[in-house]
Amino acid sequence: MVIKRSASSYDQTAQRLIDAIERRGVTVFARIDHAAGARGVGLELPDEQVVIFGNPQGGTPLMQSDPRIGIELPLRMLLWREGDDVLVGYQDPRELSDAFDVGEHHATLEQMAVLLEQLSDEAAG
């Protein structure tokens, strides 16, 4: 997992990530707030959420080559608080070619990796 430490608060980091995604015309499909879910059942969890986003033009050809990769798509980033630190993390999509038959889509996986790096850099400040 690629992890970056944010220079800002949790809320600022989350908003910067959403803004960076939307500025690129990429769709935010969901935000899963794990901490809110924990509170809903009477448990405590520091701030933590998964942001799920993507573009069907990028992911669909991968799924056409190997439908199983759909378990990994759309892309996602994790934001969480660990003590006083706010962290942003993601899985490197280039590693998906080891698990799925998508080797001919190396350029797409590389573009996805670059996008995730840029987004995490912008979110972390």
What does this protein structure show overall?
The chain is α+β, with helices and mostly antiparallel strands. 43% of the residues lie in helices and 26% in strands. The chain has helices spanning 10-23, 34-40, 56-65, 96-99, 106-124, and strands at residues 2-5, 27-33, 48-54, 75-82, 85-90. The chain has a 5-stranded antiparallel beta sheet. α1 crosses α5 (106-124). The longest helix is centred in the C-terminal third of the chain and has 19 residues, at 106-124.
Give a summary of the structure in a few sentences.
The chain is an alpha+beta fold and 125 residues long.
Compute the CA-based radius of gyration. 15 Å
Order of helices and strands: EHEHEHEEHH
Strands of the widest sheet, in order across it, are 1-5-4-3-2
Q: Beta-strand level of the residues, as a percent range?
A: 25-35%
Which runs of at least 5 residues are low in confidence (pLDDT < 50)? Answer: none
- What profile does the largest beta sheet have? 5 strands, antiparallel
The number of helical elements comes to: 5
**Level of helix content?**
40-55%
Count of extended strands:
5
Structural class: alpha+beta
| Average pLDDT score | 97
Shape descriptor? globular
Distance between the termini: 19 Å
